[in-house]
Specification:
Blueprint (H helix, E strand, L loop, with lengths): L3 E7 L3 E6 L4 E5 L22 E2 L5 E2 L5 E2 L8
Antiparallel strand pairs: 1-2, 2-3, 4-5, 5-6
């Protein structure tokens, strides 16, 4: 299974990612903003706290994460 190795927050609710299979690039997550758990991004500074969780998911806290096989990356 491909895992995220590195992630960085970008402007406009975008993130840059590098995966274990060697692929890398930016993803626009703005379509998720304001919906469900992603409402948390509306609070100042939350989106910038993006990190790779120990199990390889892209995460912001214990409640918000996107796994490497999510359709969002395709």
């Amino acid at each position: 299974m491909t895992q995220a190795l590195e992630v960085r927050a970008r402007e406009g609710l975008r993130i840059w990612l590098r995966f274990s299979d060697g692929s890398a690039g930016e993803v626009d997550l703005s379509d998720l903003a304001g919906r469900g758990v992603f409402r948390a991004w509306d609070r100042g500074g939350v989106f910038a706290k993006v990190h790779v969780a120990p199990h390889g998911a892209v995460a912001w806290d214990d409640e918000i994460e996107l796994c490497a096989d999510s359709s969002i990356w395709k």
